[in-house]
């Protein structure tokens, strides 16, 4: 059993997406633990300070690795295009806008990263703000899309409750669960995205480190769970 768990972990870490999910969970987990242990102490020192330092380094690592995500996102956006013609028009519109916001997010973040690294002579703050705003827009659009899909699925479940097969109902219920988890994930990330915007907008800048870590850990663990469920279903 231990050998199987180890081989499964190795298989996850050998893929880019799998490794990113693990690093993301560790990043937010360290921030949650460091922030909770530090309490009102500022600046934190000792173990809390070390945990927050590890979190910052893992976050920087993920930022550097995202330098290569543009092409994967572009391939996905081009593959989706304007969406399947048999798909709901509102879902298609939200998906296209979500893909556009995600596509624009990457170059903005790259410019901010390059400015911080001294590669290009521009201020990084406005580019970090723009990339965070685009991420927030993408998350909001993703939530609206999932809510629309949930509305359609619940309506189908009511309409075909007596006529559809048990297997069909089970599949729709599984889709409902997946969309609910997506809403929770995007909502947790959206709360953090707003926190990282310039102060004065909603709750921007008001979250303590432990709350940022908690929200990020929740979204990371849900993402790992969803990825494992997809992997299991593909293996069947």
From TrEMBL:
Transmembrane segments annotated in the record for this chain: 127-151
Keyword Transmembrane helix included in the entry's annotation: yes
Subcellular location: Peroxisome membrane
One Gene Ontology cellular component annotation held by this UniProt entry: peroxisomal membrane
InterPro entries in alphabetical order: PEX11, PEX11C_met
UniProt-recorded name of the protein: Peroxisomal biogenesis factor 11 gamma
GO BP: peroxisome fission
PANTHER family: PEROXISOMAL BIOGENESIS FACTOR 11, PEROXISOMAL MEMBRANE PROTEIN 11C
Pfam families: PEX11 (PF05648)
Keyword Membrane in record: yes
Keywords recorded for this protein, A-Z: Membrane, Peroxisome, Transmembrane, Transmembrane helix
Annotated signal sequence range: none
């Amino acid at each position: 059993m231990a050998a199987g768990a180890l081989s499964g972990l190795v298989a996850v870490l050998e893929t880019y997406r799998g490794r990113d999910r693990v690093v993301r969970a560790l990043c937010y987990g360290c921030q949650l633990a460091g922030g909770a242990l530090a309490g009102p102490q500022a600046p934190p020192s000792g173990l809390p300070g070390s945990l927050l330092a590890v979190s910052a380094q893992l976050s920087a690592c993920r930022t550097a690795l995202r330098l290569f995500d543009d092409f994967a996102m572009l391939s996905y956006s081009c593959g989706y295009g304007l969406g399947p013609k048999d798909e709901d028009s509102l879902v298609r519109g939200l998906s296209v806008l979500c893909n556009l916001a995600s596509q624009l997010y990457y170059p903005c973040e790259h410019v901010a990263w390059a400015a911080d690294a001294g590669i290009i002579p521009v201020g990084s703050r406005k580019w970090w703000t723009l990339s965070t705003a685009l991420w927030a827009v993408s998350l909001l659009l993703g939530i609206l899309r999932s809510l629309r899909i949930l509305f359609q699925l619940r309506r189908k479940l009511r309409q075909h409750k007596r006529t559809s097969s048990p297997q069909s109902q089970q599949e729709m219920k599984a889709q409902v669960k997946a969309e609910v988890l997506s809403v929770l994930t995007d909502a947790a990330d959206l709360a953090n995205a707003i926190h990282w915007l310039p102060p004065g907008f909603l709750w921007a800048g008001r979250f303590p480190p432990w709350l940022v870590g908690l929200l990020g850990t929740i979204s990371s663990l849900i993402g790992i769970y969803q990825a494992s469920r997809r992997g299991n279903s593909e293996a069947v």
